[in-house]
Amino acid sequence: MKKLIPFVLLMLSVQYLFAQVSLPTVQGNYSGRAANQNITAVLGAFPAEVALIHSLIKEPKELVFQGIHFTEGMLNGRHIVLAQTGIGKVNAAITTTLLLDHFNPREVLFSGIAGGVNPKLLPGDLVIGTSVAYHDYGAITPDSMLRGPTKDPITLQDNPLYFPCSRPLIELAENVSKTVSFHIIGKRTPKVIEGVIVTGDVFVSSATATKQLYQKMKAEATEMEGASVGQTCWQQHVPFLVIRSLSDNASETAHEDVATFYKIAAENSANLVIAIVGKL
After folding, report:
1. Which end of the chain has the lower number of beta carbons within 10 A, N or C?
2. Assigned CATH class of 34-279
3. pLDDT digits over 190-236, tens only?
4. Which of the following is catalytic: 220, 248, 257, 267?
5. Which pLDDT score is estimated for 232?
6. CA-CA distance, 85 to 110, in Å (whole number)?
């Protein structure tokens, strides 16, 4: 017992010192931010989602942070920084974190493709995100998925279940969409709607799963990055907007459909984001 006393006292001292040192650091990292009013950030997950935007950037300057490539320059009269996040929630969160840390943008726009959840939507249609949410975060029960909110790692308080996109950016996107010429599939002009976009680390190709997302989460589209970008921006108090164009209907034919329509969908979304940037 006597031998244990010095060890216990040592551990208590270490815990005390750790608490004294680490707590102020955490609080400091969560202090208010002064955004760079002169720069807008644009993200996409994979090459086709950023290719058109990248090709139009004037006076591009390439920068690399922790292996992630960023392109800074002028797009449609606005100073922007563009990055390809990679597919999936973790990749998107890493890139968004580096983006906010190094560029401190005024707002973040995400452009990309998605699977349609609303049965009335078809490939090529666009969803302006009103909010984003995880469809794969929570608890699995024998017959369902109980979805719950994430927690802010600093405050340990619940985050919103649905991260709200910036209302001014939503309204701007809605107005601008009326002036954009989108790729037409067949003879049908793409439809543009506002709605919930849900995120998960799975490619949804099931009509049954899609129906559940539509009924239980009121989702219009499903993808793999938006909510992680939204959570990162929400926790750092940065306005954001997710734009998605449908490449498929997230049904059993999703793999075939996405191969056919992903380029058209990616460019429809990119064209809307380019137009938004021009009005910022």
Report:
1. N
2. alpha beta
3. 999 999 999 999 999 899 999 999 999 999 999 999 999 999 999 99
4. 248
5. 98
6. 10
Tell me the angle at which helices 226-235 and 89-103 cross, rounded to the nearest 10 degrees: 40
Residue 56, Cβ density class (10 Å: 0-12 exposed, 13-18 middle, ≥19 buried): middle
**pLDDT at residue 19, rounded to an integer:** 36
Is residue 171 annotated as part of the catalytic site, yes or no? no
Among residues 141, 106, 109, 100, the alpha carbon closest in space to that of 226 is found at 109
**248 assigned to active site:** yes
Q: What is the pLDDT of residue 6?
A: 40
CA distance 122 to 22: 51
**Contact by Cβ (8 Å): 229, 109:** no
CA Rg value for the chain: 21
Burial of 159 (0-12, 13-18, 19+ CB in 10 A): middle
For residue 32, name the pLDDT band (cuts at 50, 70, 90): low
Mean pLDDT is highest, among 144-148, 255-259, 269-273, for 269-273
Q: How many helices (H) and strands (E) does the chain have?
A: 7, 12
